[in-house]
Amino acid sequence: MGRSGLLADALKQIAHEVDGGFEALLPLPRDARAPLVEAMRHAVIGGGKRLRPLLLVATAQLHGVDRGHALRAALAIEAVHAYSLVHDDLPCMDDDAMRHGKPSVHKAYGEAAAVLVGDALQALAFELLADPANFGDPFVRAELVHVLALASGAGGMVGGQAMDMAAETTSFDLPTITRLQQLKTGALLGAAVEMGAILGHVAPEGRTHLRGYARDIGLAFQIVDDLLDHDGDEDKAGKALRKDAAAGKATFVSLLGAERAREQAALLVDQAIAHLAQHGQEADLLRAIARYIVERDH
Question: How far apart are CA 182 and CA 199, in angstroms?
């Protein structure tokens, strides 16, 4: 099977598994919480590339972890990612009406519901990771929780979003934009790879090459996002584009130019793949994910 076929099958499978996992986790209660859970389901079922769950499962399977076991952690990281999108779309932040080709949660269910959905999804993530029924080893549970918490908070994704909001009124240079995106986008992608390695009982010192891989694909991912925001197709993206330019925000494209940005993304993907040199064919899916990041059109 070629790498495009390998990745296409993997993306289709993980999307099916993540949707099925959230279907099982979020049955509608027969009480006044039903609208909240319905809105949570709207946020997590049927949309998105599922890149973070795929990275986690692919890294875990690289180290011999059972797929069903890895999927429980994958649902946790996707719950955090989904919560961040629900909150990012709010009028007080990015004010986006569409997400994954359907109305944002606040458009479909109201702003108060969207705040609660994000809160509940974040709690669900840590509930999944801390549950002894999901992960029997208490040391694994503690490390999974710690890694996801670090990547999610002020030292990671939320800190990056705060910097992104400040970028609307402050002129950021290239190192600052790089740091912003390493936090906002890269931290959670890195956590996905790290959590897969934790499930495989890889010692911290044995994860250095995986951290390098994750760092490089994270930055490449955001450069391509900026390129797609600059000249992409809104129908394919399923959301509004060209908002950064309208807001006067500095991006990789505005600072580097489109051609240099594309070259930098390609270089980062080559570097990411080079980090996997110690692995054989068993890492082909991780290599295919890296290439997909620069080849995608949405």
Answer: 24
Q: pLDDT-based confidence at 5, cuts 50/70/90? A: confident
Q: Look-up: residue for tokens 């994750």?
A: 214
What pLDDT was estimated at residue 247?
59
Distance from C-alpha of 150 to C-alpha of 131, rounded to nearest angstrom? 19
- Burial-class residue 42 by CB neighbours within 10 Å (0-12, 13-18, 19+): buried
pLDDT score for 244: 61
Residue 241 pLDDT greater than 60, yes or no: no
Q: Are 196 and 63 in contact (CB under 8 A)?
A: yes
Contact by Cβ (8 Å): 271, 209: no
Nearest to 196 by CA among 64, 288, 291: 64
- Digit-coded pLDDT (tens) for 70-128: 999 999 999 999 999 999 999 999 899 999 889 999 999 999 999 999 999 999 999 99
199-232 residue pLDDT tens: 999 999 999 999 999 999 999 999 999 999 888 6
Asked if 151 and 83 touch (Cβ cutoff 8 Å), the reply is no
Q: Nearest Cα to 102, choosing from 52, 39, 50?
A: 39
User: Which residues contact residue 31 at a Cβ distance below 8 angstroms, ignoring those fewer than 6 apart?
Assistant: none
Rounded to two decimals, the pTM is 0.92
Q: Which residues does 107 contact at the CB level (< 8 Å), separation at least 6?
A: 97, 98
- Identify the CA nearest to 57 among candidates 3, 84, 2, 18: 18
The DSSP line for 236-281 is HHTS--SHHHHHT---HHHHH-HHHHHHHHHHHHHHHHHTTTT--G
Q: What pLDDT, on a 0 to 100 scale, did the predictor assign at position 246?
A: 55
* Residue 282 vs residues 63, 75, 197: alpha-carbon distances, Å: 9, 23, 14
